[in-house]
Design a protein that fits this description.
Layout lengths: L1 H15 L6 H9 L7 H17 L8 H12 L5 H11 L9 H8 L24 H7 L5 E6 L4 H11 L4 E2 L6 E5 L8 H4 L3 E3 L2 H5 L11 E4 L6 H9 L4 E6 L2 H13 L6 E4 L18 E7 L14 H4 L5 H15 L3 E11 L8 H11 L2 E9 L7 E8 L1
Parallel strand pairs: 5-6, 5-8, 6-7, 8-9
Antiparallel strand pairs: 1-3, 1-4, 2-3, 9-11, 10-11
Helix pairs in contact: 1-3, 1-4, 1-5, 3-4, 4-5, 14-15
C-alpha cells in the first residue's frame, strides 16, 4: 500500500537527518539517492519530512512514526489517504471530520497525544509580551506562503497578467500591493518579474514601511542593506531621496546591485562597511558624514522567521542571544554619530525576543540619548508571514 511505502521512505530520511543541517538542502540531497522517484513522489515525501520536524517538539513522547502521522494530520489542510490509513493503524479509530487545528488537537488529547507547547519554541521566556503567542506558535504548523510586493504604479497591469495566465493569488486587504501565492508558484517567468516591478518580500517586512515616512530630498543610509529589499520599498514610496547603502558582505552588495539593476535603479551609492567597528564609513568617500535617516535592519537570531525553517526549532536550543545583542548594540552605537541632529534611526529585526528588541531600544535611549518616537511588532502569523520588530528613534 502506498501509505506504507511513504511512511518507510519518510522514516528512512528522518533517521538520517541531523537537525543542525539545512532541511531543504538535506531533503534534496537525500532524495537524489532514489532517481526512480517521480516529482509527485518527491513532493509527498518532502511534505512528510517537513511536517514531522514541525511537530517533533510538540509531541516529544511520540515515536518517529507517530510524529510523521501527527505532522500530516496537523500541518496539512487536506486530509489525505495517508492520514486516514495511519490514523486507524495508530489509534484504532477512524478519523472524524476535523476542520481546524484546535479541533484536531482536542480530538488527540484523550488518545494520549497531548500537545506540549511549553518546550515548543527555543528561549520562549524571552519572547516579548507584545507577540500574540497562540497565532505565532500555530504559524509554525503552517506551510509558508510566498508574499510579493508590487510597485504601486504597476499593480493593475500585474493583476491583469496574473488573470491572463490563470495564476491564483490573494491580495492583502490593507496593503493592496502585497499579494500572496502558494510557495511553489513560479513567478520568475512573468513579464513584471523580469521588468523589476515585483519583489518577493514577506508580508511583515512590507508592513514595516509604516515606520519609514520618507520626505523628498532626504538622505537615507540603509546600513545593513543585505540584498536591498527595504531600500527598494523605500524608493517605491518616495523615489527622490538620496540613497546610500552598505553591508559587511561584498556578496550581499553584489546581489543588491543586480536587484537594483533589474528594477531600473541607478541613482544610489554603495560601500562595504563593518558597523561593529568605530568610524565604519571613514573610507566611504562619496558618503556624507551624516544622514537624515539611518535604517538599521540589524543581524539577529531570525526567530520571527523560523516558521519557514522548522529545523531551527530544534537546532537553536543553544542559541547565544547575548552575542546577538552585543553586536546589535555595537552596530547601533557606531551608527549614532552618522545621524543628523533631529534625524531618525529606524531599528529593525526579524526577532521575537525582547532582548534583541525592546532592551536594545532601552539601551539606545539610556546610553546615547535617543528619544523613542514609536516601536511595535509587525505580526503576520495568521497570514503565513513572519514577525518583525521595528522602532523609530530621534536624535
Amino acid at each position: 500500500m502506498i501509505a506504507e511505502v511513504r511512511m518507510k521512505q519518510a522514516l528512512q530520511a528522518l533517521q538520517a537527518y541531523q537537525p543542525e543541517k539545512d532541511l531543504n538542502v538535506f531533503i534534496k540531497t537525500h532524495l537524489k539517492q532514489f532517481p526512480k522517484m517521480g516529482s509527485r513522489d518527491r513532493r509527498e515525501v518532502s511534505s512528510l519530512i517537513y511536517d514531522a520536524i514541525r511537530v517533533k517538539l510538540l509531541f516529544p513522547n511520540a515515536d518517529l512514526k507517530q510524529q510523521v502521522w501527527l505532522g500530516q494530520l496537523l500541518c496539512e489542510s487536506a486530509v489525505t489517504d495517508f492520514v486516514h490509513h495511519w490514523t486507524e493503524q495508530i489509534t484504532g479509530k477512524p478519523l472524524p471530520d476535523l476542520t481546524d487545528l484546535a479541533s484536531k488537537l482536542k480530538w488527540l488529547d484523550p488518545l494520549g497525544f497531548v500537545a506540549d507547547w511549553s518546550n515548543f519554541f527555543p528561549w520562549s521566556e524571552q519572547i516579548s509580551s507584545a507577540v500574540e503567542l497562540q497565532s505565532f506558535y500555530a504559524a509554525h504548523l503552517m506551510h509558508p506562503i510566498t508574499w510579493i510586493r508590487v510597485k504601486s504604479r504597476a499593480l493593475q497591469a500585474f493583476l491583469k497578467e496574473l488573470e491572463a495566465k490563470g495564476i491564483k493569488y490573494e491580495q492583502h486587504e490593507l496593503l493592496p500591493t502585497a499579494l500572496a501565492f502558494p510557495a511553489a508558484t513560479k513567478l520568475d517567468q512573468l513579464q513584471h518579474w523580469q521588468s523589476g516591478a515585483i519583489e518577493v518580500q514577506d508580508l511583515a517586512s512590507q508592513m514595516t514601511a509604516a515606520l519609514f515616512t520618507p520626505k523628498k530630498g532626504e538622505s537615507w543610509l540603509d546600513a545593513c542593506a543585505g540584498s536591498g529589499g527595504k531600500s527598494l520599498m523605500l524608493l517605491d514610496m518616495v523615489s527622490d531621496v538620496r540613497l546610500f547603502v552598505s553591508d559587511i558582505r561584498e556578496e550581499a552588495l553584489t546581489r543588491l546591485h543586480e536587484r537594483f539593476k533589474r528594477a531600473g535603479i541607478r541613482s544610489y551609492s554603495r560601500t562595504q562597511a563593518d558597523y561593529t567597528q568605530p568610524q565604519p564609513l571613514a573610507n566611504a568617500g562619496s558618503f556624507p558624514k551624516q544622514f537624515d535617516v539611518v535604517l538599521a535592519d540589524v543581524p539577529c537570531s531570525g526567530s520571527g522567521t523560523w516558521s519557514a525553517t522548522p529545523e531551527m526549532l530544534i537546532s537553536q536550543r543553544q542559541l547565544n542571544l547575548t552575542a546577538f545583542t552585543d553586536r546589535q548594540k555595537a552596530i547601533t552605537a557606531n551608527l549614532v554619530p552618522s545621524i543628523k541632529e533631529g534625524g531618525r534611526l529606524v531599528y529593525l529585526t526579524c526577532s521575537v525576543y525582547k532582548q534583541e528588541n525592546e532592551e536594545v531600544v532601552e539601551y539606545l535611549v539610556a546610553t546615547h540619548g535617543l528619544k523613542i518616537v514609536e516601536q511595535q511588532y509587525f505580526q503576520a502569523s495568521t497570514e503565513g508571514g513572519d514577525v518583525l520588530f521595528g522602532a523609530v528613534l530621534m536624535k
